[in-house]
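1st attempt posting a full record on here, be nice pls
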Amino acid sequence: MLDERTGSLLTVINGMCEKGSFKLVEESELLKSLPPACGVDGATLRAMLNYLEDGKYIEVGYAEEGEYCLRPLPEGRLYTERLRRERGEAMRRRRDSLLLALAGGFSGGFFGSLAAWLIAALAS
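the predicted structure (as tokens):
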């Protein structure tokens, strides 16, 4: 499992290399694509790229003076797709829970007011 910053970098690489072929990318372009909250600099970026390459997520054709030739491997694409699917399932579960809570609240309110109306009608 990748940490948040490395996962974000892998997602950026997968987005840049849509066809799965090698793409020449500058270091500044990768740094701009990452969220500023990550706090990634050039040295950290190189370490993250090495980690992704060692884990067989990407292939680095060459890396010289702030330019990288990158290609996502099938394992990297699967990781990104799995992460996207998990996020979608989590959103779907939240939506379903919200809808069930709303339905329960409305039906409880309706039946409670119906019971109060019946009691008031029978008492008079």
